[in-house]
Amino acid sequence: MEHQVKIGLFGFGCVGQGLYDVLSQSRGFRTTIKRIVVKDPSKKRSLPASMFAYDKNEILNDPEINLVVELIDNAKDAYEIVSTALRNGKNVVSANKKMIAENFEELVRLQHEFGTSLLYEASSCGSIPILRNLEEYYDNELLRAVSGIFNGSSNYILTKVQNEHLDYATALRQAQELGFAESDPTLDVEGFDAKYKLVIITGHTFGVFARPEDVLNLGIGNLAVGDVEFAQSRGKRIRLVANTFQLDDQRISLFVTPRLVAKDDQLYNVNNEYNAVILEAAFSDKQLFVGKGAGGHPTGSAVLSDISANAYHYRYEYKKYHQQARFTYSTEIELEVYLRSNDPVLFDEIGFTSISERGINYVSGVNYVIGTIGLKDLIRHRERINASGSFLAATGEVIVLDGSRKERKQLSESVGI
Ligand code: HSE
To answer: Catalytic residue among 34, 197, 236, 320, which?
Structure first.
């Protein structure tokens, strides 16, 4: 049965305003925003000043407020607010992927200890209802892999650069103006944002709470026209793809990198701020979810759904964590990659285990290599790849290492061409 929901809202940026619009227009579900706490008293707001406060305790210590909706930018402040609210007996809805991914296990523990609930559908892939589906619909499925496009801003930039030949800086500026990008857009273009979402999705898919700092993220920050031309010359497009997948009965692996995707890949035509999630499972086989991954209203819609779920006492049970034989996160894989760099020493030192092609990119004149590299080596050289202006894209082929045995696996095939 629904109970009377009185909301204390933190943050009134793009998503906060989006939520306000969505709540105002939603039919059949009545809820009140009692107070909105924001940081900057001097900023002009679209609502009466009496709605706003500047001290977090006006929400956290208000006994009438029974739901905290946290939509602020700063992950550290968000953790303070969310953990205090959960300890004080208030349920929370949050969209803060960085905060959740970085404190995942602790937040699960706090919910258990204080009997409170934290819902965060809006944190992962905007309007695509993936977390509750992983928890409820696929509670007894044997999930094998989840992958896809988890960052709207990068996908917007890639679409504009590849399909419309816009330059990178203009495309990024548009993504910022449209409210898709994070305040610090390096989180988007270097693959951090997609990685936080991947960590959360992995928790609900395999019951593994990986630490973000242990997971590889490479992004599109160093993308050059030559890389786009190279992809096109092979009939492919570059997409920023997040992957979490089972290696065997005990191990899973996860990483975020750009990927060269072929025309018949389901990700090839996912454009602009759209996200896509491809699920592979033993019984239902392959399924594709596509929807807007960024923007005030699409994200506000996911927050609305969590507010509504909270009203009928829904909470995550972390079923995969409690149910399954435990998986562990393994880096015992190699990735086949295209690496373009003007740092010749990088090619020698990064640790290619095999090389199938070397060439000179005919647009930029710089060198590229296609070959396989261990995930551990990529993690170790991540900073150097970024700092040297190099660009790396996976081909979708991985090699699973099991002692001296090597097994090839096509991620793009396994997720449904
Ligand atoms: N900056 C994020 C993106 C917003 O571009 O996907 C949604 O999480």
So the answer is: 197
Where does ligand 1 bind, in terms of residues with CB under 6 Å? 126, 151-153, 180-182, 188, 193, 293-294
Q: Which regions of the chain are under pLDDT 70?
A: 1-3, 324-325, 413-417
pLDDT value of position 27: 83
pLDDT digits (tens, 9 = 90+) for 85-94: 999 999 999 9
Q: Which DSSP string do the residues of 179-228 spell out, in sequence order?
A: T-S-SSTHHHHTTHHHHHHHHHHHHHHHS----GGGSEE--STT--HHHH
- What's the gap between Cα 323 and its chain centre? 24
Residue pair 145/415 in contact (Cβ under 8 Å)? The answer is: yes
Separation CA 227–CA 283 (nearest Å): 38
What pTM does this model have? 0.96
Fold of 141-292+326-410: Dihydrodipicolinate Reductase; domain 2 (3.30.360)
Reported as a single tens digit per residue, the pLDDT across 275-300 is: 999 999 999 999 999 999 999 999 99
Task: Confirm if 287 and 151 have CB atoms less than 8 A apart.
Answer: no
Residue ID of nearest Cα to ligand 1 atom 7 = 294
Q: What angle do CA 333, 337, 338 make, to 5 degrees?
A: 170
Pick one of 2.60.120.620, 1.10.3720.10, 1.10.10.10, 3.40.50.720 as the CATH number of 6-119: 3.40.50.720
Q: Break the chain into its structural domains and give their ranges.
A: 6-119, 141-292+326-410
Catalytic (active site) residue 197: yes
- The first and second tokens of residue 106, run together, are 């602790």
Nearest in space to 270 (alpha carbons), one of 155, 157, 176:
155
pLDDT of residue 417: 37
User: How many whole angstroms from 185 Cα to the centroid of ligand 1?
Assistant: 9
In DSSP terms, 250 is beta-bridged to: none
Around Cβ 380, how many Cβ atoms within 10 Å? 14
Tell which residue, 89, 94, 31, has the closest CA to residue 312.
31
Q: For residue 415, what pLDDT is reported?
A: 44
Closest C-alpha to 199, from 118, 128, 139, 253? 253
DSSP 137: I
Give which of 289, 243, 274, 28 is closest to 154, Cα–Cα.
274
Closest CA to 268 of 294, 249, 288: 288
Q: Which residue has the tokens 């973000």?
A: 212
